[in-house]
Amino acid sequence: MKTWINIALPKGRLGEKAYRMLKESGYECPSIEDPGRKLIFENPEKGVRYFWVKPSDVAIYVERGAADLGIVGKDILLEYQPDVYELLDLQMGKCRMAVAGKKDFRDPIGRTLKVATKFPNITLDHYNSKCRDIDIIHLNGSIELAPILGLSHVIVDIVETGSTLKENDLVVYEEIVPISARLIANTASYQFKDDAINAIRRKLQKQVESR
Length: 211
Ligand code: PRP
Fold this sequence. Notes:
single chain, alpha/beta, five-stranded mixed β-sheet, elongated, binds 1-O-pyrophosphono-5-O-phosphono-alpha-D-ribofuranose
């Protein structure tokens, strides 16, 4: 019986880049290049089935076995700690998790620091390690608005090019951790479909090393 490998790709630029790597590794799927509103794409000959999901949902599909493999940012792995295997650093989608705020901001030492973020767990870990008392304001987007409007003192967020901060007169105070895209696998799939999964991992690794 044929082994199908189900791969969850994050919608957006990172997913498109990841698909190009998979295509170059020999796992092309022509129908994905003319998607319309379809969400699932198959290449029976190669035994691969791709689907697009929200970037923050990739790890959920993989953890629960709806996908055997997925491409996900290290930020999501650090934040949600899903029970998956991290197989490979794809060395793309590089950015950093950082603390940022207004240029003239000074930490109100002795008072609770108000921190706005989409990443409460990463934020808590960071400030716990410094024994700094914080109040987390959990937002879902446009985090940069928070210090500008006085909702928070600082933010913990992804910085890629730095242009969102720059255009809003904000600066990085502290870098927390570098981030890049990772290939992840469902733990059971990794046992039962190990040959097919390792073949994909090896080919992707070769591409990473040849860059
Ligand atoms: C992310 C992140 C920053 C921005 C950083 O936001 O939260 O706002 O990208 O990128 P830059 O350093 O290249 O400017 P995203 O685009 O995901 O939108 P969001 O504000 O809705 O979270």
